[in-house]
Amino acid sequence: MDYTKLGNTGMDVSRICLGCMGFGDAERWVHKWVLDEENSRPIIQKALELGINFFDTANVYSIGRSEEILGRALRDFGRTGCGLGQIRAAVRLRLILDGSTALDP
Predict the structure, then answer these.
(1) Residues 6-28: tens digit of each pLDDT
(2) Alpha helices, DSSP H only, in 3-64?
(3) pTM for this one?
(4) Which are the catalytic amino acids?
(5) Alpha carbon distance 40, 60 (integer Å)
């Protein structure tokens, strides 16, 4: 995987960003084509295995369900994928994992 600096933040992010708008709950969202958690997790896991550490999500995707799915998958797969310190999310929130802040806005 190729990495680049994210603006002037000093953070190294993968040149490929996984967009997470397609993860969610079709019953709670306007788009009926979104994947539920069970079907989203293998995609997130594969992204981590390939070295992707840059994820785009928003609290409006499936009314927050996308963030919940991504957060649980990063918690479960992040340790084996690339280490939580290497994961970046393009969101303005804090993901609390094991009682510590893994990502700062």
Answers:
(1) 777 777 888 999 999 999 988 87
(2) 37-49
(3) 0.74
(4) 61
(5) 17
